[in-house]
Amino acid sequence: MRKFLLPLLLCVLLLPALRADDLKIDRGFYELSGFMVLSGGNVDLEFGFGQFYFDNFQIGVRGLWHDQSLIERRAFNVYSYYVIDTNTWLLPYAGASLGFGYWKLDETGQEATGGEFRMLSGLKWFVSESTALNAELSFGFSTDETFVSDDSSSDTEVAFNLGISFFF
Fold it and tell me: By residue range, what is the domain housing residue 148?
């Protein structure tokens, strides 16, 4: 078993270093993504759709859904990000989003709505020319306490997102 461990480890480490000239991150391509958002002890679902308007530059929309406890939360935002082309299958990116968030406490009917701004940075690991695994860190700021953390609300948030994207 050990004789296979070193070649397997080398394959995993060297795979991102392969040249990736045909990735679908140029002007005119689309991205459909889904994320599991981990923040404040909660797990949310986020879905997005975007288009590359310039090479390596994307503009799109994202929607977030949270309904795992007494608090129901929704968010919708427009985002843009720039992918740093490393000529490998491992691509970092950075961007920002602007939108609104909403939450409602089921028991009392208490609710809040406000504008949200996020800064994002992440890494896309292309497992094929049209599929990527994503890891993203985002910092959010809100005009009201629209972020949910352990069944309480806040006007700031740090979230770690894991997801998958399909490019076409």
Answer: 2-167
